[in-house]
From TrEMBL, chain A:
Full protein name: Thiamine pyrophosphate-dependent acetolactate synthase large subunit-like protein
Superkingdom field: Bacteria
Keywords: Decarboxylase, Lyase
UniProt source species: Nocardioides soli
PANTHER family: SULFOPYRUVATE DECARBOXYLASE, SULFOPYRUVATE DECARBOXYLASE SUBUNIT ALPHA
UniProtKB/TrEMBL annotation, chain B:
Keyword Lipid biosynthesis: no
Stored Pfam families: TPP_enzyme_N
Domain Thiamine pyrophosphate enzyme N-terminal TPP-binding: 5-106
Broad enzyme group: lyase
Entry-linked Gene3D superfamilies: 3.40.50.970
Taxonomic path: Bacteria, Bacillati, Actinomycetota, Actinomycetes, Propionibacteriales
Highest taxon of source: Bacteria
Enzyme Commission number(s) from the entry: 4.1.1.79
Keywords, comma-separated and alphabetical: Decarboxylase, Lyase, Pyruvate
Protein name: Sulfopyruvate decarboxylase subunit alpha
Molecular function as annotated in GO: magnesium ion binding; sulfopyruvate decarboxylase activity; thiamine pyrophosphate binding
Amino acid sequence: MRRAVLAQTIAELAPEHVVLTSLGTAGRAWRDHGGPNPTFYGSDPMGAAPGLALGAALARPDLEFLLLEGDGDLVMNLGSLLAVADATPANLRVIVFDNGRYETGGGQPLAAAGRADLAAIAAGAGWPAVRRLDRAASREEIRAAVGELLATPSGPALLVAEVDQEASPYGGPGEHSGAEARVIFQQELARWEATRTGMR
Amino acid sequence: MSERAEQIVSRLSAGGVELAAYLPDSWLTPLIDRVIAEPRITHVRVSREDDAMAVAGGAALMGKRAAVLCQNAGVLLSANVLAAFALHHQLPLLIVAAARGGAEDGFFYQMYKGQVTAGVADAIGLSVHRVDGPADDWLFERASEQAWLQRRPTVLLCSRDALLGAGS
């Protein structure tokens, strides 16, 4: 499964979600191939994205959140799975882009890559709904798995999607500072919410 | 419930805090228990302090004021998240930290925390206040406002008396 296909499928099926991404290839795939959803692109430090998503979801229970998470980001803070499981945010879904290595950093494998099962770890941490999607999944299977994740009656729910190992070089410094990126997201979100509620 | 904890939570709520993520310290136990019982504050258990900072930052991103309750060791642990996440994105959050390792603390292993935390927090770029007792209670209320106006984390380094009451 190519990252682009997964991002495109998410964009088709999740137009009503606020998207948060971790640093790295998951966020880059969404930026290049995702939808127009209000999106906050996470930056350093790796390992903070699940906590960020948890805080956001708890702060705004009226919105649906989707975290696009890199496996490298997740393994830097596996304890965050416990915090999310404990808080049980009903409005948080997570898709882990699982390629088993630090793609942007040079392709080095994660510790225990190929042996560790992130879906099993999440289930063992107490997540009530966990799914796994094989690397060889067809487009139909990808669509079904993402659809099932989004249709889970109550969160948190997590899908570990095995994606191909594809080069993902640094894209340059970006156009905006961290503070500017935060303001842009908040403004995008405000406009999106106003549109949805007809309050423009 | 501890009267001291009641006073602190009242101040935190008056300052607009609606979410608190925490890890225990024995000096924080009454405050954490009171926060858990407080319906105006969503409480979040974490397993590392830097995760608490991320949770609070996520709440701030969505427009909610949030606090982290932890030992000062958590401030040291969280240096990267505070600098690279909270300060990078200018996300305000309030840290209520038990200032272990002061003159009133009786453990060898706590001493380094008292020696280095304020300096490290200052070097990271946080606004740092010492809270030594009830006379400083206004900070529990106003520090979240300061964080909000400065768009950066503010840390309160709280003595044993400040958290548990004089002579506890």
